[in-house]
Write a structure and sequence with these properties.
By secondary structure, the chain is an alpha/beta fold. The protein has one domain: Divalent-metal-dependent TIM barrel enzymes (TIM Barrel), CATH 3.20.20. It is 37% helix and 13% strand. The protein contains nine helices and eight strands. It has helices at 17-25, 45-56, 91-105, 129-147, 165-175, 185-190, 194-201, 233-241, 262-275, and strands at residues 3-6, 30-34, 61-66, 115-119, 152-156, 180-184, 205-209, 249-251. An eight-stranded parallel β-sheet has the order 7-6-5-4-3-2-1-8. The protein is globular. The mean pLDDT is 95.
Length: 282
């Protein structure tokens, strides 16, 4: 399976070529760029140009980007006006959110990538037909803009009332949109459970997000680390291998300040996940 490290692991730091060199040196061949202003500022042309030049001369490739969630550099703490949501009820704010996402997609003109991962709604958002209509309108524009740049938009299952695996199926049935899915295993663990969510989304899965949690909080822990995570990773890898398709394994992890070599640790996680086999496969 293709190994991809999300730069979410060091999202509190400005994304520079130094970080990317560390990823490549650890033996990881692909990255997912997490678009956040304090890390990768899609409006900072100098940063995008610098990264574009670096990737043109590097063997490290970009599999995907994660669409921005906020316009500020403090995770939305500057106020509700900083939240980027395609289900925004006020049309003018929703248009502004779509424009922000389109600006992030313009990164592909300097740094090519295959997928953009998009959230449907915000944490704790409840299901409503209005939200479905708003998202449909926004996604029509976003997907057209993305495809003009060779990018496919993937919706991510998230722990809210609008984007669980089952609710994503409802969204696709209501809108008839032919979109793929980024299957987030940590989020599935907090909702229906990984196996059930996988069964719902299997035909549309194009990429993944792997991280661990306690089943209640979105902790983005290192898999197989033994520090509060409760996912059965042997069973989970069996589930992912049950399809003839080979999904990219994308580690989307939270920085642990006291961890000395987190990128090397991520590479060891990839190796351990690949080695996992249930007894009947051994």
């Amino acid at each position: 399976m293709q190994h991809v490290l999300s730069t979410h692991l060091f999202v509190q730091h400005r994304l520079t070529t130094v970080w990317l060199d560390r990823v490549w040196d650890a033996g990881i061949p692909f990255v997912e760029l997490f678009v956040a202003k304090q890390h990768l500022d899609y409006r900072n042309k100098a940063q995008i140009v610098e990264l574009g030049h670096w990737f043109r001369d590097s063997e490290l490739q970009v599999n995907s980007i994660h669409a921005p969630l906020f316009t500020d550099d403090v995770w939305g703490r500057s106020g509700p006006q900083s939240i980027i949501s395609i289900t925004e009820r006020e049309k003018a704010k929703r248009i502004a959110a779509v424009d922000e996402i389109k600006r992030a997609l313009e990164i592909a003109e300097s740094v090519p990538f295959r997928f953009m991962v998009q959230h449907l709604g915000v944490p704790e958002e409840e299901f409503s037909e209005y939200s479905v209509d708003a998202a449909f309108s926004a996604l029509e524009e976003i997907t057209m803009f993305a495809r003009q740049r060779g990018v496919d938009v993937l919706l991510e299952n998230t722990p809210n009332g609008l984007a669980s695996a089952e609710r994503l199926l409802t969204f696709f049935e209501l809108t008839h949109m032919e979109l793929g899915v980024c299957f987030d295993l940590g989020h599935a663990h907090m909702n229906e459970g990984i196996e059930t969510a996988y069964r719902h989304l299997k035909p549309r899965i194009r990429s993944t997000h792997l991280h661990d949690n306690n089943g209640k909080e979105d902790l983005h822990l290192f898999p197989l680390d033994g520090e509060g995570g409760t996912i059965d990773w042997t069973a989970t890898m069996d589930v992912l291998r049950s399809s003839p398709g080979q999904y990219p394994l994308v580690l989307e992890l939270r920085e642990v300040p006291e961890m000395q070599y987190p990128i090397q640790k991520a590479q060891s996680v990839f190796e351990r996940l690949e080695e996992l086999r249930s007894r009947h496969e051994s």
